[in-house]
Specification:
Helix content is about 35%, strand content about 25%. The chain is an alpha+beta fold. It folds into 2 domains: about 150 residues, 2-Layer Sandwich (Heat Shock Protein 90); about 80 residues, Heat-shock cognate protein, ATPase (Actin, Chain A, domain 4, Alpha-Beta Complex), CATH 3.90.640.20.
């Protein structure tokens, strides 16, 4: 075999290996794109400004909603389930039958929110007109979808609320949509029964590493899990390589600590993960 032929075959072999590697990577990408394509997202954007009373200096309620839903006929049930799962608060949809279409649902939410704003604040404003800004409300909700682990689309809802208080209230809510089973996964769908204690210990260890503390008592000195038994949050994301537990401000610590995010690699809890069907 000539030297040139050997060089040619070696080059061809290396090209094949590179192609296989790329194909493997793209295999994940293709799967990811397929999951999001199955979800087939569309957005409903609503901006509403409502005055509390009919005068020129009236306080206002401003709502900005960017809501993502699925256009897929097969996932209509998931749309309804998202509404009743608390992705937007107040949770008007968990009791009773939600509206038929998502557009109707959002209009219904806005209408009820404004009605309650006027009901709750109007009488207070009339006896406290010197402080109209105290009765302003700004409420923004922005939702989005992204790829999670294979077969899962992660739905997130980021809400910011301000009512004239000293600081905004920000809340992140996540839901994990199994596009195969067409349902939202709960933690008990992912973690085997009885594993919460081990997962909680791993969460504490991860937080100790992050905040440079020796143990739970050290975290409690920072107000984290003070007076609260550690637990894995039901608010979580099934990302590609890890599970992410979300604890919003004031949930497991004082407000100054802010939102706490804990990432745990699947490899660290593999034996506690339920086998996927």
């Amino acid at each position: 075999m000539t030297k040139n032929k050997i060089s040619y075959l070696l080059a061809a072999f290396l090209t094949f290996i590179a192609f296989q590697s790329l194909t493997s990577c793209n295999g994940n990408s293709d799967t990811n794109e397929k999951d999001l394509a199955v979800f087939n997202a569309y957005s409903i954007l609503k901006d509403t400004t409502a005055t509390l009373v009919n005068d020129s200096v009236s306080p206002t309620c401003r709502l900005h909603l960017e809501m993502v839903f699925s256009k897929a006929d097969s996932l209509k049930g998931v749309n309804q389930e998202l509404l009743t799962s608390g992705i937007i608060t107040p949770d008007y949809f968990s009791i009773g039958t939600p509206p038929t279409t998502m557009a109707e649902a959002i209009d219904s939410f806005i209408r009820r929110y404004v009605e309650e704003y006027k009901r709750d604040y109007k009488s207070l404003y009339y006896i406290d007109k010197e402080n109209p800004k105290s009765y302003d409300i700004n409420y923004n909700v922005i939702t989005s979808v992204k790829q999670g682990r294979a077969g899962v689309v992660i739905y997130t809802s980021e809400a910011t609320y301000n009512s004239g208080a000293k600081h905004d209230t920000k809340t992140l809510i996540a839901r994990n949509i199994d596009v195969g089973s067409k349902k939202i996964l709960k933690l008990e769908d992912v973690i085997v029964e009885g594993a919460n204690k081990f997962i909680s210990e791993l969460i504490v260890k991860t937080l100790c590493d992050e905040y440079d503390k020796e143990n739970l008592e050290g975290l409690q000195d920072l107000s984290i899990f003070k007076g609260i038994t550690p637990y894995p949050s039901q608010n979580f994301m099934l990302e590609k390589d890890n599970i992410v537990f979300i604890y919003n401000s004031d949930e497991i610590a004082t407000h100054d600590i802010g939102r706490i995010i804990v990432k745990i690699d699947y490899s660290d809890i593999n034996k506690y993960l339920k086998k996927r069907e």
